[in-house]
Automatic annotation (TrEMBL):
Gene Ontology molecular function: any one: FMN reductase (NADPH) activity
Alphabetical list of InterPro entries matching this protein: Flavoprotein-like_sf, FMN_Rdtase-like_dom, NAD(P)H-dep_FMN_reductase, NADPH-dep_FMN_reduc_SsuE
Protein name: NADPH-dependent FMN reductase
Gene that produces this protein: ssuE
EC numbers on record: 1.5.1.38
Residues covered by the NADPH-dependent FMN reductase-like domain: 1-141
Family: Belongs to the SsuE family.
Organism from which the protein derives: Pseudomonas typographi
SUPFAM superfamilies cross-referenced by the UniProt entry: Flavoproteins
Keyword entries, A-Z: Flavoprotein, FMN, Oxidoreductase
One Pfam family from the record: FMN_red
EC top class named in words: oxidoreductase
């Protein structure tokens, strides 16, 4: 299984980035291959001008096309996902998320931004024809505490539990996805099948 972890924060110190990293580690612990793309790792000109011939953009599009699922994490600004994330999503072709499972994750300053997942992020991902859109996770800033010095950030127990449950559901959804059948194999099966009328 291949999962793309897509980070929409332009900041290196990011609570949504913390959740994305936790999700990545948990999925890797289950044997899932995870490839991470952070918006800040792209040349801004490639994103703003939709340079589809850029090697970084080509790699991103190819990896998403081959993925079984996406975990998308973003901070919430002005009651919506980050504009930087939108520029990345805009690079994806129509139906880019068909046959894929998507887990949206968002962080914001307060629970007042909780509905940004349902009313801002999910509709955009659904427009790309995601096969299965999971409920998603929203965390307010008070639920993610940065440690002193090099200490790892700490999650509130309730958030840790919700994230773990969402990732279990995500992994189960990935496992039950129908696997595509090679066209040649399907033809052979049809030709060798016993038919009766």
């Amino acid at each position: 299984m291949l999962v793309v972890a897509l980070g929409g924060s332009p900041s290196t110190r990011s609570r949504s980035g913390v959740l994305l990293e936790r999700a990545k580690l948990a999925l890797q612990g289950k044997g899932v291959e995870v490839v991470t793309f952070q918006v800040r790792d792209f040349d801004p000109q490639d994103l703003l001008h939709a340079r589809f011939n850029s090697p970084a953009v080509c790699h991103f599009l190819e990896t998403v096309a081959n993925a079984d699922g996406l975990v998308v994490a973003t901070p919430v600004y002005k009651a919506a996902y980050s504009g930087a994330l939108k520029t990345m999503i805009d690079l994806l072709p129509e139906r880019a998320l068909a046959h894929k499972v998507v887990l949206p994750i968002a962080t914001g300053g307060s629970i007042a931004h909780m509905l940004a997942v349902d009313y801002a992020l999910k509709p955009v991902l659904a427009a790309l024809k995601a096969q299965e859109m999971l409920q998603g996770i929203f965390a307010d800033d008070s639920q993610i505490a940065y440690g002193e010095g090099s200490a790892a950030p700490q999650l509130a127990p309730s958030l840790e539990h919700r994230l773990g449950a969402a990732l279990e559901e995500f992994h189960s959804a990935l496992a039950r996805r129908p696997q595509p059948v090679e066209p040649g194999l399907l033809t052979d099966r049809l030709l060798s099948a016993r038919w009766s009328i």
